[in-house]
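Work package 3, deliverable 3.1, input record:
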Amino acid sequence: MVISAMKFENVVMRFGDTTALHQFNLEVSQGELVSLLGPSGCGKTTALRLAAGFITPTSGHLSLSGKDITVVPAHRRNMGMVFQSYSLFPNLSVVGNIEFGLRTRKVAASERRKISDEMIGLVRLDGLEDRFPHQLSGGQQQRVALARALAIRPEVLLLDEPLSALDAKVRLELRDQIRRLQQSLGITTIFVTHDQEEALAISDRVAVMSSGIIEQIDTPFQIYKNPASENVARFIGAIVEIDAHVVNSHQVAVGSRQLSCIGADSQVGSEVRLMVRPEEFILSRDVVSDDCLVGTVVRTEFRGSQTLVFLSVPDVPNELSAIAAPGEAPPSVGSQLGIRLSTEFTRIAPR
Amino acid sequence: MRDNGRPVWAYFVLCITGLFFLAPFLTMARFAFQNVLVIDLGWSNLFENWSFDKATAAFGATYFAESLWYSLRLAVFTSVLSVAIIVPTAVFVHLRLKRLRTIIEFFTLLPYVIPAIGLVAGIVVLKPYIRGFIASDYSLVPFYAVLSLPFTYRALDSALQSLPLETLVSASRSLGATWTQTLFRVLLPNIKTAVISGVFLTIAIVLGEYTIADVLLKRTLPAFMVEYRGTDPRGGYALAVLTLALTTLLFVVLGLLTRSRHEKSRSS
């Protein structure tokens, strides 16, 4: 049996009258990167603070490599943590910050120096050793924070939205750097974020949270392709919701139009909601067939590798977003396009 | 109109304020150090007959050295006591009792609102029960610590306010530091300037307070000065001017200290 590196068992966390976590269960394997993803207030940061030992759960257990750590105080847990921002000690230099955890562990000066040199190399901060936090950019500060957390050779690395205060380009760079380091060091990591793109990009598994529970935990691919609930579907990626009536095993009606839709067979006669990703729409110039929706192009967004097309469709209250056929010039605003569903589309929810 | 980014009126205000502080100081200094009859003091004899005699005489007076030494000891003990009480309290309030901040702030302002004589009245009521304490040399220490509360607390409060306290404490704890290590290695170094300025303000209070010392019959430096003024008014004022100058010097040093810290960290 594989012992999970970090395990939450039926953890409940209450603050006064509010319950931040309900029966929270999570197992993170050795060397795995699991993201806790959800809107603010969903309990993801509470889960991380529990792991770090800053708070103790109302009930339930936490274990680390099979050992119960529920009541072990933060300073004895050996967890490396990186915070959103401003977590560096302003009075200490880069080296001073990185060596802080080693000093509290009474590591000899020569050994400290060796480790901090190694960490500075790892996060590529060479030449900035003697700078103070206020002399560093946001990205550099977060790299120091990462080096500081890794220097103590933690059993688990806890990342609390470490990228959210950075600008887009730096965020991407650091994101890749974190993932590369995490994989090369094989360090078990819990990554808290509200940015779904970030979570999908670097995680082995993503736990989608809302109101104190995990709605779904799976690989990024499965979370995107097969969301377990409407909530998850709405939270991850773009999605268009279309109310429809199932006509027969391969057709649904949207207002006065019929639309081919395999996978509708089990619910003939019922009212359903189609939850469609932009790439699951197929656009064509053919608007005369009676098995497609017809939409008017409202605007287009050219994004280099693809063009997003926004269409208004009669009887569909929301704007519908789709991806234009690759290699073609974007359709002109006001033109009419036929809209079909790809054969891979299966996300049909009863309503 | 601007000069170097500072509006001209700022200099004007600075001059007025400077005059407001310097004029009484200069007047006192002339009375204390110029061998001219008070009635004759005017612009024409501004530079005549300055002498340090009265001050020298006061230095040599019985009880001067003793009261100075007493006040200095009081200053040290009061500073230690108020820092030891207020630093952990302020940190605790900022970390755990954020909602009570306003109330605590109000309490620390009380010594401002209630005059020292009120505090003394309280002591009189308690006198029968705490005779031993009142008789002791250091009975003034707690009272002075209370008087310094508004200044010390405020200085620390704003310093802590400007720190991302919770994150720093969390970071320190997750790196294996105990609460004590966190206090000494992370918090204190970052609020050092505020602690120092709190201490300087406390010293200034101890060197200036008279009411409580007088009621408790303690011969502190201010009490001695008042006493000495009875026998030699000009000598008394000479001491007052020197004490004022000393306190001012203290704050100039404080200013330089805080500034050089900033500049050092900015340029290195």
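The CA atoms of residues 145 and 168 of chain A lie 19 Å apart.
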